[in-house]
Amino acid sequence: MSDSRPIALDAMGGDHAPHEIVAGAVHAVRERGLRVVLVGSPRVLYESLAELDATHEIPIVRAEEALAMDEGALASLRRPRSSIAIACHLLRRGDVSAVVSAGSTAGIVATGKLRLKTQQGVLRPAIAVALPTLPHPTLLLDAGANAEVKPEVLVQFGHLGAAYAELAYGIDAPRVGLLTIGSEAEKGSKVVRRAHELLEAAPGLHFVGNVEGYDLLTGKADVITTDGFTGNVALKTMEGAVRYAFDELRQTIGGSPLARLGAFMQRTRLRELSRRLDAEAHGGAVLLGLNGTVVIAHGSSKAKGISAACRLAADLATAGLVAGIGERVQRPHRSR
Amino acid sequence: MSDSRPIALDAMGGDHAPHEIVAGAVHAVRERGLRVVLVGSPRVLYESLAELDATHEIPIVRAEEALAMDEGALASLRRPRSSIAIACHLLRRGDVSAVVSAGSTAGIVATGKLRLKTQQGVLRPAIAVALPTLPHPTLLLDAGANAEVKPEVLVQFGHLGAAYAELAYGIDAPRVGLLTIGSEAEKGSKVVRRAHELLEAAPGLHFVGNVEGYDLLTGKADVITTDGFTGNVALKTMEGAVRYAFDELRQTIGGSPLARLGAFMQRTRLRELSRRLDAEAHGGAVLLGLNGTVVIAHGSSKAKGISAACRLAADLATAGLVAGIGERVQRPHRSR
């Protein structure tokens, strides 16, 4: 059963806004059969749509302001009529099923909290990112919404992530790990050590113990809970390291004509791999814990990344992510 | 001018102790012209030396106890006669120029602090790790000695790392970056935001601002300061991600016989690359801020890793790392 309401797409957020965002909307509508509403400056968006011969396919909702990519949390207060604020407003009113934006993460988080409010029972919203493990992604959260959290919040992030993993990947009783610096319970900061105790005692949560940085890409846990500072550093370190390793290896192997030819013949598989490792292809990060589904696409997203983000947003809305989280956090003591 | 005293090598610490440690000592002596003293059980070590026909080349200092790899900080109190404790004792007495151990990091840190004491003026010792950037490594510290630190300590880690970078790589006024989650000064946790202010005002320190996880391998800073929790997670994330990317790429490319043949012909360059990325080849992490140079080799080190660690320890001792750090932390207000 699919949610038939459209996705509200913030057309003014992102390094390549608005043109690539509009192109992404067109792709989502034409190739994925989704319904999308563009939020932004009508004049600008109409032009972009006209270029793609799509003025009749995608409606525009007016928002004359926008948050710049370098604007943070405070800007969301200063600009109540920004494109992301209007998109959240549409979601709040029930006109759309979810919001997608490639704008400034801090701006999206602040605007989302302000306009949509935190879900009942949720202590702190968190950003969940899907890491490219197989057979299904590992969810890392928080990837940057909260630089500092209490132990209870780390436990709840486990629940938020578990709800996501259940609904998005159909995992029964997702394995939840705590990111820290050693496998023993007594390793880590005070907050993390206390969170370990609470996680061990948490009903309805399949806690598999501490995980380390090594384990982000090994699939040892389905959900990895951490504060937004550590999670953000780890995520960016991972992205940087993968890019580095690829560049180095490509340079080394690229030196041999024979290897180059071989790699050429493996193009499809190489492309598939880089697609799997590409954050964009996953559709982006999800802001969990608000009264509505908000997908944060990568700031550098082009049309296909935006389209994938719309797909993700639609799927999560259809799966009932907000309700699923509500059930988990309001009845944490149910037994499984 | 070289320090002619030998290196004390903890022969009982490490996943492959004692045999690979002894083999590493023999390599260091024969191939690198270093002087090494093995610390551990004489009976066991004599046998290992005999197998390598090296009983006359390397002296043994008796230590009948050892810390197990899974033993932490407390064990160092329980075992005052452990091999690492005796090695530190030799260093304290001035019989050796430095200590090398592949044993449990927590055990080495605790024993080192207890036996060698923290250097005058140093707030907290830190573990510095050399990341494989070019043209010279980037130093990341703290990589795990302190799960929680005050802002002042993050500033001092900058000084410890800068002293290391100056002496080991000959860098003048090393660029110091602060690891956090955004380039703006106001990003990060309370501790990190305060550290940013202090670093900006710190005399004698070339602070280049915030760096993010992406920057660990880009050479944007010569020294990256962070707490031991974040540093350890980032380091292990990096190692895991590099391994992952290599495995994935190898699998993808390995599928084509032509590519395999090409890679085969590039063997030397590939080997060189994996050597550069291999933590072992760098000789390991260095525990900075004690009254004596302590090198922590990777727990999984084999002979060549141990030999490289002995080389690093000897070089740092000769360069006068302890004195260099003392100068920096006791005269932080000198102008450069």
Automatic annotation (TrEMBL), chains A, B:
GO cellular component: cytoplasm
Functional pathway: Lipid metabolism; phospholipid metabolism
Catalytic reaction annotation: a fatty acyl-[ACP] + phosphate = an acyl phosphate + holo-[ACP]
Sorted UniProt keywords: Acyltransferase, Cytoplasm, Lipid biosynthesis, Lipid metabolism, Phospholipid biosynthesis, Phospholipid metabolism, Transferase
Swiss-Prot/TrEMBL GO biological process terms: fatty acid biosynthetic process; phospholipid biosynthetic process
Record's subcellular location: Cytoplasm
Broad class of where this protein is predominantly found: cytoplasm
EC identifiers of the protein: 2.3.1.274
Pfam families recorded: FA_synthesis (PF02504)
A GO molecular-function descriptor: phosphate:acyl-[acyl carrier protein] acyltransferase activity
Record note on quaternary structure: Homodimer. Probably interacts with PlsY.
Family the UniProt entry places it in: Belongs to the PlsX family.
Function noted in UniProt: Catalyzes the reversible formation of acyl-phosphate (acyl-PO(4)) from acyl-[acyl-carrier-protein] (acyl-ACP). This enzyme utilizes acyl-ACP as fatty acyl donor, but not acyl-CoA.
Record protein name field: Phosphate acyltransferase
Native source species: Nonomuraea glycinis
Originating gene: plsX
